[in-house]
Amino acid sequence: DDDDDDDGSSDEANASESTEASSEEGEEEEEESSESGESDSDIDEDGPLHADEGESTDEESDPSDSEDAPIGNDLGFDWDAEKTDASMTDVADEKAGKKGADKAPSKREKKRLKEARELEILQKEQEMRDGDHIPESAMEFEKLLIASPRSSFLWVRYMAFHVSCGAYDEAKEVAERALGAIPASEEAERMNVWAAYLNLENKYGTPSPEEAVKKLFTRAVQIADAKHMHLTLVSMYERNAQEDALEESLKKAAKKFSYSAKIWLAYIRSAVLKNDSEKARKLLDRATQSLPKHKHIKILTRTALLEMKEGNPERGRTMFEGILRNYPRRTDIWSVYIDQEIKQGDIQRIRALFERATHLDLNAKSMKFLFKRYLDFERSEGDDERIAHVKQRAMEYVSNKFGSAAE
Length: 407
What we know:
- This protein is mostly helical.
- It contains 18 helices and no strands.
- The chain has helices at residues 27-33, 83-102, 107-130, 138-147, 152-164, 168-181, 187-204, 209-223, 226-239, 243-256, 261-273, 277-290, 296-310, 313-326, 331-344, 347-357, 364-381, 384-406.
- The longest helix has 24 residues, at 107-130.
- It is extended and about 80 Å long.
């Protein structure tokens, strides 16, 4: 996404998050440009609101989707995992030492040894990402951080290491160090640390988690991107089913950032997940009153997607039908609607949608896109008769569109 007011975004997680970006034009320009047969990014169903489902953009995706798990719960330490690596490193160091005793290394040799050591550290970091190995000590984390001081992944893992040992104060110290080590230009990396830090305070903060989160959040919004911090807080409360805190944070965010479609979508999603259709409708009305006109199609389509994917599919269908009545030439919206029906699995509904879409009077490029999608679907789900039907329909379109001109 990004709203016109966005400075950049990052979805948040205990370990890491994902991002996406999109742009919008005026309604008439949107309708004309959409006849390209390509999905418009502002209604991409894998938008940032679904990053916690593992759908990434970015989510784009971040190196870890452990957002739904508390810090430290997914570490699974294997205390014997690194014995082989350690012994191999010792042998390599011993050989290097023997060479050094005979002759001082040249600049080229020093460079080679440095690169080899950096490669070893990067390999260890990759092993951590793959879940094959977790450092066994603070010293090992410190060594890795010397090579990658800007890696939020390493810093958050280091925090999780301390939490797994019950050393909560040490985990906070690591978070503070991370915020000091990662420059302001690395906004996404810093946001990952803020997210992990908030989760840490929400579970183990003193004198109470509520006070600790409030204090840290007040500080964070003065330093980091304020809107993204509000979304981070919302996501944290949602994951932990803290309903009262979630509602309060959404109210504040909607009041402060009433011009942001992303904020309104987060609020609407909370109502959809509770199956509160009346509240979702009222929030959508408030959103369209607050947002600039060129963002209306975006929030309407995203809300329809939320209903199809996480709420009531019938409400989602009703919304899509209403949108397409007003924007019948938006092939990107047709495509997203079809995608959602394919996920619902009703073959007759899907075919009916394809038939309607391929009877539109659009430019050749858009119609080619729609017929190709229809043909791909029948090749996957239909039979030879259905495939022949789609091909015949396409030939009829070409004949009707270009036949008289060709003659």
